[in-house]
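Subject: sequence -> structure tokens, single chain

Hey, anyone have a minute? Need the predicted structure for the following. Not urgent.
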Amino acid sequence: MQHTSDFCSFTQLFTEYRERFVRFANSYVRDMPVAEDIVIDALVYYWENRRKLKTDENIPGYVLTAIKHKCLNYLQHLQVRKEYSGMAHEYAEWEYNLSISTLEAFDPYELFTKEIQEIIDKTLGELPAQTRKIFILSRYENKSNKGIADLLGMTTKGVEYHITKALNQLRKNLSDYISVLAFFL
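Reply:
Had a minute. Here:
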């Protein structure tokens, strides 16, 4: 018989206080469906714990206290989500700023400079001494083909042959970089 009496008391509590409880919860959470869920959760909490309560317990006060705690938990959860969202936003902003500054500092011409220079130096080191010397006089010292020919006592055609030989070897050794360089240039 106790069960029927408990159920009747619960039904009376629900009917008499539900609307007031929902208004109370909504005044804090400012979301009617959430307020209704909080009230239902608090009433279920009361129902599950009713046998542990003192016989003279103020039941509406007990449920209202449960609603208060559930509202607090909900609002604290929202606050944590907001803080996390703010931190996630700050991190995303930092990441965007880092990307922007990295791209602004990026110089495509410097990207391969060291590697290309190493290949050029290695290729020149592998050329025959005469070809290397002529190429260096032409490209690094800006001497004309005629000036190189006069300096080395050879024909202009001979100088052109050595320069062409060096350029062909450089093109071959730098073939992986030529398409990338063409893209940047």
